[in-house]
Amino acid sequence: MAPKKKATRSKAPKSKPKSHRGKKSPAKKSARLASKAPKAKRLKFDPEVRVYATPETLVQETAHQVMQIAREAVNARGRFVAALSGGTTPKGLFQQLTEEPYRSLIPWDKTYLFFVDERHVPLNDETSNYRMTQEYLLSRVPVPTANVFAMTDGKQPVERAASSYEIKMGKFFGTAGPPRFDLALMGMGDDGHTASLFPGMPQVNELERWVVGYYVDASKKERVSLTFPVLNASRFLLVLLEGEKKAKMAREVLKGPSDPPRYPVQYLRPADGKLVFALDEAAASLLKK
Ligand code: 6PG
């Protein structure tokens, strides 16, 4: 029987990664259920843009925002579930969350942390997002170890690491639909990528799987990443941009034409949630020009 065609955006490049996912894939099950749901209206890239005078105020204000999201989620649903990006930008925010008043105000015992993406390396590798998060956040706040879901330890084939994470997410969220994070903390690369969804890669067009694992030419590394269907199911997508080096791409993405295949971060379009770009003045310095 011909394999079922995977749901992808039109114009997807031909080469599609094989998947190790068996019939256990929660994404497949939830896609079957979703296919019976009314078609979501075509959403456009429409972020709220917040600019703060300095990196310090950017970090303080976004820490306050994270604390508010966390407390509201626990009040409403008894838990706060977030997906964290890696790289360097989140370090300042993580540091702030470990300090008062946020350390005391965030309900860490009811907090569950997943990862937006990860380099397919051992957890203690210096390029690991898990390691960075462990160093700047997890080792300094009382979030239970069992509440932290590392994405990969680099040991399995990268596609199997992705399908294992998908099964882990299915066990946590259930399979009625894509997982809904209360917060997805996002970054943006100089090439307009977000998560590990890079321009020109077919994984940018994945519309069924929740997690993909593949070799990324741009970073010469294997990566594991959440896909846009999961990211766009989030209640709050917070894109953090800090520093001069982000200014040019921030202007392209926020002020230029809509061209998400070229700037994948423009595919962030929450179906029923908020999309906020939070920048310091340096990252926003070309927005007015
Ligand atoms: C990663 C990230 C990635 C990051 C951007 C920005 O694993 O590198 O998740 O998507 O958010 O590349 O990285 P910086 O914060 O280092 O500029």
Give an overview in words.
By secondary structure, this protein is of the alpha/beta class. It has one domain (44-280): Rossmann fold (3-Layer(aba) Sandwich). Helix content is 29%, strand content 16%. The protein contains 9 helices and 9 strands. It has helices at residues 26-34, 55-77, 90-97, 102-105, 129-136, 158-173, 228-231, 247-255, 281-284; strands at 48-52, 80-84, 111-115, 117-119, 183-186, 211-216, 221-226, 236-241, 274-280. The strands form 2 sheets. The protein has a 6-stranded parallel β-sheet. A hairpin with a 4-residue loop joins strand 6 (211-216) and strand 7 (221-226). It is globular and about 50 Å long. The chain binds 6-phosphogluconic acid.
Question: What features would you highlight for this structure?
Answer:
9 helices; 289 residues; binds 6-phosphogluconic acid; six-stranded parallel β-sheet; alpha/beta
Summarize the structure.
The chain has 9 helices and 9 strands. By secondary structure, it is an alpha/beta fold. The strands form 2 sheets. It has a 6-stranded parallel β-sheet. Strands 4-7-6 form a 3-stranded antiparallel β-sheet.
**SSE ordering:** HEHEHHEEHHEEEHEHEH
- Molecular shape: globular
CATH class: Alpha Beta
Bound molecules: 6-phosphogluconic acid
Please tell me the CATH architecture by its name.
Answer: 3-Layer(aba) Sandwich
- Strand arrangement across the biggest beta sheet: 1-9-8-5-2-3
Largest sheet: 6 strands, parallel
| Overall radius of gyration | 18 Å
The span between the termini is 56 Å
Which percent range describes the beta-strand content?
A: 15-25%
Q: How would you classify the helix and strand content by structural class?
A: alpha/beta
- How many separate structural domains? 1
Helix count, DSSP H or I runs of 4 or more residues: 9
